[in-house]
């Protein structure tokens, strides 16, 4: 990424004063969600602060927790260790419980093509873009999205009203809850990188 | 350009304004409509420039340099930067040697993350009541909750006032358990000069952008008193493949904010003193209690109501509080309850699904309780008789805002007749009879 682009994006967000993920006026997180949905063709996105947070979210989204067994082809050791920590056992094989792609400066332009996979949840690791740990889970299932979204903000269903909302859907509240929230500044940079990469060669703005 | 620079200044308060009619009765609010926003965090050219320079530095180094600078400021031995405060608490517990099924004693009054971090460590939170003056974990109740399976005591320096660490340290040593701080509200808070985060065997602290010391978004940091504890935490992440890494973007912002933290601390202390003096004169309102030798960081400012001081002792205190809350909000003061029920009464600790199949609660069924709010009478008493200001003392450029808050409290305290009428009409409920809220 050209330093100048990142500089402009960071300065723009800092000037807006909105750096908090649970800020009413934040536009960066919804902006990245929109971009990812468009680029992957999925209807729902959960943004999180790391690849492992996304794997956790992809499982919780599908109601998979401690004591469950899943099938997953070709897991790497690190992810296998993480699933063991979650108490989920894995059988090597198909169908995949989640698909996973790692995006970096080299392949960001091909996200649409990479995202053409079949599992109910797609983990997109955005860390390789260079703005710090960042990831997303994409899914077409609105209920899966709702479950996943709540894992990252202590069971709340909307970042913007996290503190004050009252529960309407207790069945969707996860047991263990994390802060897996992504920072708007990081989201803004990731979106810039994805948008640039998606432009046809030579169309730099 | 979208900017957070205020479009117009808040006028200095005039004396007759505080003597005017209550906003609820049609008077002019102390904080005029459209001027209610407290800008936070304050972002300066130094933040922008530091951020831009960081792009030229290796990301790991930006994060490591920030963590080292803040570790030195706190005076802790070892530091591990994390993606969030919750992650830092998890790491503090892992570093302290908390193992699956262990019991960790936490206060019933805190943010839910304190207790969820215990579950994240595959351990079981055991909830105890708070001290009636400090609103922090009660050492006596803590002692009564220690069992052979207790591994750690985790006090929270609630709102920025350090918990009774001397008593809890002595208790921990006596029982052979670890002391782990949740210092998420307590940046720069001190006991006899020692900074929160450096007081326990380990500590976790949120650095998210709504805390007194904000990073550029989400972040946290764990502190450890020994290298062995620090290594245990790092090994834990490695062994379990967990990515809790902090973004260099968040860290870069923290580096420049850290240089200004002592300035902001002084402004907050000055604002708290000004407001406290004004409240003390009203009779109805009592400012936060601060023991001798303690420095309160005022991440939040919890005000206690004293209805008997204005002849309202015959009314239920929760109803007086609700009425006062309405009056203050009408004056433009964003007072909040911040917590309305003990943490063990929140859904995740009533259902205890944990990671699934009730893990880790299944590891230690004896530690598990079905709590009702009545199990924590001091917490309930605090919830029904207090209101909280959050960001409101922080903004360093708006002295006039604090003056106006003080006037709003004066205005409300002068009208017990209106409070009485609202209570009569109100149909108010106790805080914990309403649905649990996160904050
Ligand atoms: C007392 C307390 N502990 C822990 C946390 C969790 O921190 P974070 O939101 O950074 O994960 C908070 C946060 O808001 C808090 O108030």
Automatic annotation (TrEMBL), chain A:
InterPro entries: DegT/StrS_aminotransferase, PyrdxlP-dep_Trfase, PyrdxlP-dep_Trfase_major. It comes from the Bacteria. Pfam families: DegT_DnrJ_EryC1 (PF01041). This is DegT/DnrJ/EryC1/StrS aminotransferase family protein.
TrEMBL record, chain B:
One of its GO terms (molecular function) is transaminase activity. The keyword ATP-binding does not apply. Pfam families: DegT_DnrJ_EryC1 (PF01041). InterPro entries: DegT/StrS_aminotransferase, PyrdxlP-dep_Trfase, PyrdxlP-dep_Trfase_major, PyrdxlP-dep_Trfase_small. One of its GO terms (biological process) is polysaccharide biosynthetic process. Its cofactor is pyridoxal 5'-phosphate. It comes from the Bacteria. Keywords: Aminotransferase, Pyridoxal phosphate, Transferase. Belongs to the DegT/DnrJ/EryC1 family. This is Pyridoxal phosphate-dependent aminotransferase. It comes from Sphaerimonospora thailandensis. The lineage of its organism: Bacteria, Bacillati, Actinomycetota, Actinomycetes, Streptosporangiales.
